[in-house]
Specification:
Blueprint lengths: L10 E7 L2 E6 L1 H5 L3 E7 L2 E6 L6 E4 L9 E11 L1 H4 L13 E12 L9 E3 L10 E4 L2 H7 L7 E7 L6 E5 H5 L3 E4 L6 H15 L5 E5 L17 E4 L13 H9 L8 H21 L1 H4 L15 H11 L3 E3 L23 E3 L2 E3 L1 E3 L8 H12 L16 H9 L11 E5 L8 H18 L8 E5 L15 H13 L5 E7 L7 H4 L4 E4 L5 H10 L5 H4 L9 E6 L6 E5 L13 H4 L9 H11 L1
Parallel strand pairs: 12-21, 12-22, 13-19, 13-20, 14-19, 20-21
Antiparallel strand pairs: 1-2, 1-9, 2-7, 3-4, 5-6, 5-9, 6-7, 7-8, 10-11, 10-24, 15-18, 16-17, 22-23, 23-24
Helix pairs in contact: 7-9, 12-13
Length: 603
């Protein structure tokens, strides 16, 4: 196998420690200012630089049968004669410096491939002591990391080398969990939009659910002929019927901070009543959906909330006859009789007393109060859709959410606009929708037929390191997707501007990392902790990245790469405000009332 510089090694290995190697650079290369030049043809030369941090090179003989490895430069330094031998007292010794490069071994040449460069992860074998090292040309590096046709999508160009296109392996990106991290203004939203645009353009029948907390991405994915096929769910149109909630979610939303120990009887009664109504409702549609042997409290089956409340209010006043503990019901009104204390009253011609049923009477006071409060709270009206009042409406709900074609309209992306929802409601919605997506895939008999991808923007707001009452459920569900989702064909992209505030359990399950400029020391520490050790030299550059510059590491790329992401067309609505130009113009056509009305609508 030939490479252009096969006759011109730049140095040789003088030390091997684990996967780290020390290379002494030849004096002739140092004399030429760490540059190597090669004539390609008459009038055309190529000049390569030795020791560029992050650059890839070859270790071993390209024209021999020995195993060849690939390394990445981490450091290069000049070592003076004094440093080499501080006790050298010889007088007439020529004073010479030498250049030393520190590098990490990141892979080896595919032994089955004899005619071209082919990168394999891992070490295979350790490189040999005194093995020579060679630079690779941009074309050789492109060949080395090239993907098979149809397996990758281009996302940008290598940072500093504008003619090197960078692609990611699409199955290893979408088929694994990934994370995009970057400070505000680093180009994070544009990166998300650019990658997703390329995915949608090359995969017309994709199934992506996108959680958009700030309504940034509507402009990036226009839903028009010849463009993207988008199902946008506006915050005002968002409907997640209460009967789709499992009981854990129901408690979190409707009961909140109600003490589960003091109200254990009330919660038990509530569960029994919901199951009972579900069973009654199911009987009404059994001819349509088939028989369900036992209605589960967590099954997404319809039940009427307007039926539930009156029945609970009635049970909260339940009384019983003293003689046989039978319900004391007024035969005319159907209501429970009031307690008679120690006074006898007529019961079918006999004297008997009416007592409060200690297992029911008053046990539902707090539960009923909470349910009524949520029912009348405008912020929670998305739970009470009037057009989803039977179990079969669950079909269309999931078809819309998952971009499943119904013959009427085909979509490939569902954007859920959460911009006008209160912050205390947002984590609950994200948690519920995520859980529904996961459980659907869990029960899908053929999960490989409909792979699903979830995109979570501003993830630190609902999967934080420290759990709160509102973030408990989304953390629980996203953690489960992170641990088990791959088996069922559901993966997630976590996007955040505050890496150190994220749940490490979820991030640790991610296989791909796209890191943009991060300047906060705590965030930098977090990133260094989750990235592989051999990326220290590259991760140290992260605070100095330009906008749109990104370090990509993980299974979706052959080697860690610094990339300038191709700007999306069109862009998301996330660009910085131009103070200098706006403040030079008179403010016209601006209405304060419009903003206040939007404010009122939310609160």
């Amino acid at each position: 196998m030939d490479i252009l510089m096969k006759e011109h090694p730049f140095g040789q290995i003088t030390s091997i420690t684990g996967m780290s190697v020390t290379i002494e650079i030849y004096q002739s290369v140092l004399t030429d200012n760490l540059e190597q030049e090669k004539v390609i043809e008459i009038g055309e030369n190529i000049k390569l630089n030795v020791g560029t941090v992050g650059d890839i090179f070859l270790l071993g003989g390209p024209s021999t049968h020995q195993v060849m490895h690939f390394g990445i430069f981490e450091e290069i330094k000049l070592v003076s004669t004094f440093e080499q031998d501080p006790h050298n007292n010889q007088i007439n010794v020529e004073f010479k410096n030498k250049a030393i490069a520190i590098a990490k071994v990141i892979g080896y040449q595919d032994l089955k491939e004899k005619n071209m460069l082919k990168f394999m992860r891992g070490a295979g074998h350790y490189p040999k002591f005194n093995a020579k090292c060679y630079l690779l040309t941009p074309e050789e590096k492109k060949q080395l990391f090239s993907l098979d046709e149809g397996t990758g999508i281009a996302i940008g160009r290598a940072s500093g080398v504008q003619d090197e296109e960078v692609s990611i392996h699409i199955d290893k990106f979408l088929g694994k969990h990934s994370v995009i991290l970057g400070s505000t203004g680093s180009g994070k939203s544009s990166t998300v939009a650019s990658i997703m645009q390329n995915v949608l353009k090359t995969h017309r029948y994709s199934h992506i659910v996108f959680f958009d907390p700030h309504d940034e991405y509507d402009t990036a994915f226009p839903d028009k002929r010849g463009s993207y096929k988008v199902n946008k769910i506006n915050a005002n149109d968002l409907n997640i019927p209460y009967w789709l909630l499992n009981f854990d979610e129901f408690q979190s939303i409707f009961l909140g901070e109600v003490d589960p120990f003091k109200n254990s009887n009330g919660i038990r009664i509530l569960k029994e009543m919901i199951v009972s109504i579900k069973e009654q409702e199911h009987e009404m549609i059994i001819d349509t959906v088939g028989e369900i042997s036992k209605a589960n409290i967590n099954a997404p089956l319809y039940y009427s909330f307007e039926d539930l409340l009156p029945k609970l209010i009635k049970l909260n006043k339940r009384t019983i006859w003293n003689s046989d503990n039978a319900p004391a019901i007024n035969n005319e009104t159907g209501e429970y009789l009031p307690s008679s204390g120690n006074t006898n009253i007529d019961r079918n011609g006999k004297n008997d007393k009416v007592h409060q049923d200690k297992n029911y009477y008053g046990e539902l006071d707090q539960v009923i109060e909470k349910l009524q409060s949520v029912f009348s709270d405008r912020r929670y009206q998305f739970l009470f859709s009037k057009d989803k009042n039977d179990s079969t409406s669950f079909y269309s709900f999931m078809e819309s959410l998952l971009s499943v074609s119904t013959g009427v309209r085909s979509t490939q992306l569902t954007i859920i606009d959460l911009s006008t929802l209160p912050s205390e409601v947002l984590p609950i919605i994200i948690g519920v929708v995520s859980r529904l997506c996961f459980e659907y895939k869990l029960w899908d008999p053929n999960p490989k037929k409909l792979p699903l991808y979830l995109v979570f923007e501003e993830a630190h707001n609902y999967i934080p390191k420290e759990t709160t009452s509102t973030t408990r459920l989304p953390k629980k569900y996203l953690s489960r997707i992170a641990k088990e989702g791959r088996k069922y064909g559901i993966n997630q992209l976590i996007v955040s501007q505050r890496p150190s505030d994220l749940c490490e359990t979820i991030i640790s399950q991610c296989s791909n990392f796209l890191v943009m400029r991060v300047t906060n020391p705590n965030d930098q520490t977090f990133i260094n902790r989750v990235l592989p050790d051999h990326l220290n030299s590259l991760s140290n550059m992260i605070p100095f990245f330009q906008n749109g510059e990104c370090l990509i590491a993980g299974e979706c790329v052959t080697i860690p790469t610094k990339v300038i992401i191709t700007p999306p067309i069109p862009e998301p609505n996330s660009s910085d405000v131009k103070f200098s130009s706006v403040w030079k113009k008179r403010l016209i056509n601006y209405n304060v009332q419009d903003t206040i009305h939007r404010w009122w609508d939310v609160n």
